[in-house]
């Protein structure tokens, strides 16, 4: 499923390509304390290419979302199910506030449902990241539990989930 949707202000959402790796790593390092090695990004691209998206304007990548598909226990029904796990999402500060993060989430969830047949989505978010928590709540995610000391710096995370519709 090729995305390619143009947003306001000329931004486009499309599938990640290997030549985007340098910019995605730059965004990850600039925006998030959780920094992943290049092989981690490429492993997700190889295994779940339709669930790894970037936002760009005039060939300049300004944001990304990277997801994977897992088999696990439902957060809502106590049954095994296919889960879409949002591993990492980031948008450069200068490109925030115009819906890029929301659109990346919506397009990734759409791909995980249509291409990978997931039944639920979940993610972890820093307890201090109130703007991200608000976005996820607007997208229908609920806080499932607090993960004490989840991050390497000791900060807590909320595990948030929602059914795929």
- CATH class category label: Alpha Beta
Q: Which overall shape is indicated by the principal axes computed on the Cα atoms? A: globular
**CATH fold-type name:** Aminopeptidase
Number of strands: 8
Task: Determine the CATH superfamily.
Answer: Gcn5-related N-acetyltransferase (GNAT)
What is the number of domains? 1
User: How helical, in percent, are the residues?
Assistant: 25-40%
Widest β-sheet, arrangement of strands: 1-2-3-4-5-6-8-7
User: Major β-sheet, in short?
Assistant: 8 strands, mixed
Span between termini: 18 Å
User: Number of helical segments?
Assistant: 4
Rg over CA atoms, rounded to whole Å, is 15 Å
Which CATH architecture would you pick?
3-Layer(aba) Sandwich
* Strand percentage: 35-45%
Give the helix/strand class. alpha+beta
Give an overview in words:
- With 165 residues, the protein is α+β, with helices and mostly antiparallel strands.
- It has one domain (5-163): Gcn5-related N-acetyltransferase (GNAT) (Aminopeptidase, 3-Layer(aba) Sandwich), CATH 3.40.630.
- The chain is built from four helices and eight strands.
- Strands 1-2-3-4-5-6-8-7 form an eight-stranded mixed sheet, with helices on both faces.
- Strand 1 (5-6) and strand 2 (12-15) form a beta hairpin.
- It is globular.
- The relative contact order is 0.16.
């Amino acid at each position: 499923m090729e995305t390619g949707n143009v947003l306001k202000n000329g931004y486009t959402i499309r599938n990640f390509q290997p030549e985007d790796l340098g910019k995605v790593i730059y965004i990850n390092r600039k925006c998030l304390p959780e920094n992943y090695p290049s092989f981690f990004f490429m492993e997700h691209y190889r295994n779940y290419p339709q669930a790894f998206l970037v936002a760009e304007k005039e060939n300049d990548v300004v944001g990304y979302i990277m997801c994977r598909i897992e088999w696990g226990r439902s957060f809502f029904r106590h049954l095994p199910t296919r889960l879409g796990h949002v591993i990492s999402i980031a948008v450069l500060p200068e490109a925030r506030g115009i819906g890029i993060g929301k659109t990346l989430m919506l397009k990734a969830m759409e791909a995980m449902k249509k291409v990978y047949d997931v039944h639920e989505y979940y993610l972890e978010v820093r307890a201090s990241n109130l703007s991200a928590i608000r976005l996820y709540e607007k997208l229908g995610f609920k806080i499932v539990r607090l993960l004490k000391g989840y991050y390497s710096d000791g900060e807590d995370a909320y595990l948030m989930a929602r059914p795929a519709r």
